Structure formats: C-alpha cells, structure tokens
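Why should sequence recovery work at all? Because a backbone constrains its sequence more than one might expect. Tight turns favour small or flexible residues, buried strands favour hydrophobic ones, and helices have their own preferences. The token representation captures these environments compactly. In the example below, the structure is given first.
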C-alpha cells in the first residue's frame, strides 16, 4: 500500500513489472448502472492544473490521465498514457513512449505535443497552479516561473508518440509527480476555447466525461465508451449531488438513495453507525498518510513573531480535539505522519502548557493578548474543532473570531494570504504520494507560498528549501541518508513553528449494500476519496 520505487526500478525503469502494466478486470463486476455520491459543498473546479482539494481530486482523476498512474487501491506506480519509459543512468533524462490511438473526449487523438503543452501550462505563472512547484526539477522551470520563458526547455517532443523530459538534477519523486492530477494531459484547443472556464468544461482522456453540471445541484459523469483501458469503467456514470448535509446524506444512504457519502460518516453519528452491525458492515476503514493542522500566517501581525507562534502551539489541547472525532486520530507532533518515511521518532514537539504559552506572549510584548481570526470549513466536525481551538486560545488571552465558510472560500482565502489562521480539517493534508517531500513543497515550501498556493502559512525559508532540494536530489527514494535529510527539514520547520500539527487521522467511509469492488477502492490512497473507475454495482 505504501510501496516506494527502488533504485533498481528508477535506473532500469524500462523493465516494468508485468503486474504494474495494466489491470485485470474484476471477474465479479457487472458492467452498467449509475451511482449517487453526495457532498455538502459545490465543486470549485475540474481543471487538473488548479483543482486540489478532497472533493474534486478523485473526480479530476476520473476525467483525466497522466503519463503515469497507480495500480487501483495502492500506491504502486504503473504506466498511464505512457506505454513505456526509459531513464538515463544518471536519473536525469526520462523518455516516454505514448500509447497509440488514445483520444480526448472531443475525439482528437492525443500526441506528444499535448504532453508538452500540458506541462508548460501547469508551470506558467498565469495558470496559478498550486501544483507548479512539483515540477521544479524539470530543466527550464526557473525560467518559466520567472516569466523569462514561455515553455519548459526540458520537455522535448521527439516525435508524435515520444516525449523526452530532462531534469536539472536527479529527482527521487519524479515518476510520482507524473502521476499527479497536475500532470494530466489536456488539449490546447479546449483550454483556448473555454479559457478560465475550462474547469467547468473539462476535456480529458479519462474513464468518464462530464455530461452535466448544474451549479449548486449536481454533476453527472458519463462513461467514456472510447476509454483506452479495456474493461473499465464498469459504471455507466456517477451523479454527484451537492448541497447535501452529511447527516441527511447518511439517512438517504440508509434508505438506499445514496451509494457513497462523499463527506464521510458525520462524527455525531459515528458511534451510532458502528454500534449497528448492519451499518458497521458497510463501513470501510483505511490507513492514510494524513496530518490535520492549524496554519499560522507569518505575514500577518502578530503571527510574524516566533514567540507568538510558539505560544499558540503550546496552547492547543490536542488530546481533547481527538475526542471530538471519536478518538479516530492520534495527536501530531510534526508535519509528517508517523507511518511516513522520514518521520522523526522520539520528537515530542510542543507540550500542552497554557502557562508557558502565556509567558511566550509576554516575551513578545503581548501579555494582554490579542485578537485574530480562524478560518474553518463549515462541515462538521470542523466548526466544533474550531470552537475547541478558540477556547484553548481564550485561556491564554487570545480572542479568536471563527470564520466558518464553504471549502472553496477557505481555500481561496488561504491562497490569497488573507487568513491569519486556518484549521485545515476537511482539507487537511493527505499525501499525494508516499514520500516525505510531499508534505513540504506544496504546503510549507516557498513554491507553495505564492498566490493561490496551498502554503497558507506563507512560510518561506530559502535555507530550508535548499535542504529540501538536496534531499530530493537522489535516484533512490528510500536511501537512508535521504530520509535523514527529510527528518532534518521538518525539525527545522518546527523550530520556526508556522503550523500547529494537531492530529493524524484514520479514514472511514461508507458504501451502500449494492456497491461492489475491493474496499481499498473506497479509501484509495491516490484517488481520494473513491476510485470511481473500478467500483461497480451488484444489482
């Protein structure tokens, strides 16, 4: 479930294991049928270069493909739109051979030119992609980021079915990056036609295509009958109903009207569900590389002072917060979750100590406290967690106004740098791929601190960034010295306290009685929350 590429796989990448090449259709699957999935909030965008939240991630993954992909329900890499690839001995040149005959939803055949266009698009500043930093190792990234070039010099079209990508340094995560939604291949003519509305009119090569989007009500995905992977998807389509309160969604699931509650099991109903054998049998539990945290915007007074950020870390009672979610988490001490390579064992972080927190505020000249705002997603239990944070900070003299908003509005405020503090719940970080670098670049690194980025603390330390770059300049992702470097990176981050790491949560969801497919598909580690391409109905 958390397999990493070995150095052998990196250096001899053309020798791809047979099991990773494709997917054997489930013999129990019955093709056909529609399913209903619910969400409280509407979807902000389906543009793969921009969308980056819990709600749209799996939707985008079903509409688009990248050069690389994952074996369903796992983090095992396999080729996607690339039929095969080769890697130079020094790990800096990747040559991808594309599949022949793959068509976009508009009917045009995909070529290497589309690959180059898509990578140029996601890295150009005008796109404001929160994932641009993932591509920093591609030659020419610095120039395109600075507006000094229009294209990535390291991406070369060799012929219609071959693209060569040259890196400026070895990058242990590069093949994982090519499997991210941000690396999805899009047709230039569709982006040109719809402009900034491309996210409402997505055109990809994925297993499903958008059939209908009624803002504030529903989205309907239809099966792509021309999908290049044989045998899937099994479903005829998926209806996403939005504006649905999670408790109402659970009731409808119990009545057979909903197949998957996208927002999960409401915490207020969790004990009731688990206490009923019939309902508990439909609960799916999965481990996840997750951290829930409070961001502290270092660009807003008085959070620009280290003693203030340390005080807030000391003031939060993490044990009490885990009880709000029925104990489905453990308190966090650092950005990385315990099961992630590079986690620093034995590090205790900031102890809960209100008196020490008050002393830190006095050290900053704020003995009388101050007022600030905490932004939070308005889906339960997040407002209740925000209230607990508010109470903890009140105890040290900090008055907090809670701004409870729809997910998209919180993300917008965070990206714009307008939120002093954000409780990340409902949007909290779950690894895009199982590597320690993924908890740094987009959410703590300088590349993620720009306009629209997910580094909501706006923390940027160039010396730590340099450490992170060095840690990724390996061909072997699991090299002990590399993981030690990542441990050092996160310890340096904690010295600056741009976050309050709060808890590492286990994942729970439910499915209706008629849903089929391996349970891992409903807590898929990379098609969060559900891998719609491979689930099916049994009636």
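From this structural description, the recovered sequence reads:
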């Amino acid at each position: 479930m958390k397999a990493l590429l070995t150095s052998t796989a990196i250096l001899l990448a053309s020798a791809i294991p047979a099991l990773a090449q494709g997917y054997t259709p489930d013999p129990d699957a019955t093709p056909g049928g529609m399913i209903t999935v619910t969400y409280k909030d509407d979807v902000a965008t389906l543009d793969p270069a921009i969308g980056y939240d819990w709600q749209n991630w799996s939707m985008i993954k079903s509409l688009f493909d990248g050069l690389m992909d994952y074996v369903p329900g796992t983090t095992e890499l396999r080729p996607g739109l690339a039929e095969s690839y080769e890697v130079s001995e020094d790990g800096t040149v990747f040559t991808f051979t594309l599949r022949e005959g793959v068509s976009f939803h508009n009917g045009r055949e995909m070529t290497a030119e589309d690959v180059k266009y898509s990578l140029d698009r996601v890295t150009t500043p005008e796109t404001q992609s929160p994932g641009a930093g993932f591509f920093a190792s591609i030659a020419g990234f610095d120039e395109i980021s600075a507006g000094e070039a229009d294209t990535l010099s390291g991406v070369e079209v060799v012929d219609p079915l071959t693209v060569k990508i040259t890196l400026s340094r070895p990058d242990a995560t590069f093949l994982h990056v090519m499997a991210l939604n941000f690396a999805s291949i899009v047709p230039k003519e569709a982006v040109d036609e719809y402009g900034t509305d491309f996210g409402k009119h997505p055109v990809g090569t994925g297993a499903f295509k958008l059939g209908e989007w009624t803002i504030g009500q529903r989205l309907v995905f239809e099966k792509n009958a021309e999908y290049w992977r044989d045998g899937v998807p099994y479903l005829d389509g998926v209806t996403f109903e939005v504006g649905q309160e999670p408790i109402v969604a659970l009731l409808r699931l119990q009545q057979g009207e909903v197949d998957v509650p996208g927002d999960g099991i409401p915490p207020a109903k969790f004990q009731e569900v688990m206490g009923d054998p019939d309902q508990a049998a439909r609960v799916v539990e999965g481990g996840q590389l997750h951290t829930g945290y409070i961001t502290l915007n270092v660009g807003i007074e008085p959070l620009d002072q280290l003693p203030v950020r340390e005080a807030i870390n000391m003031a939060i009672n993490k044990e009490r917060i885990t009880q709000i979610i029925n104990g489905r988490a453990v308190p966090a001490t650092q950005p990385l979750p315990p099961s992630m390579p590079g986690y620093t064992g034995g590090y205790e972080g900031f102890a809960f100590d209100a008196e020490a927190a008050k002393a830190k505020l006095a050290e900053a000249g704020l003995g009388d406290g101050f007022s600030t705002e905490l932004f939070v997603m308005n889906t339960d239990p997040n407002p209740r967690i925000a209230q607990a944070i508010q109470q903890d900070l009140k105890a040290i003299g900090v008055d907090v106004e809670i701004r409870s908003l729809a997910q998209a509005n919180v993300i917008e405020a965070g990206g714009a740098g307008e939120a002093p503090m954000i409780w990340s719940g409902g949007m909290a970080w779950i690894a895009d791929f199982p590597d320690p670098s993924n908890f740094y670049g987009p959410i703590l690194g300088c590349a993620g601190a720009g306009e629209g980025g997910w580094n909501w603390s706006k923390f940027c330390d160039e010396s730590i960034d340099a450490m992170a770059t060095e840690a990724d300049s390996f061909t072997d992702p699991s090299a002990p010295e590399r993981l030690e470097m990542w441990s050092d990176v996160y310890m340096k981050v904690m010295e600056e306290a741009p976050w309050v790491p709060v808890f590492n949560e286990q994942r729970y969801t439910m499915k209706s009685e008629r849903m089929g497919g391996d349970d891992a598909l409903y807590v898929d580690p990379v098609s969060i929350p559900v891998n719609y391409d491979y689930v099916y109905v049994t009636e």
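A few observations help interpret the result. The mean pLDDT is 92.
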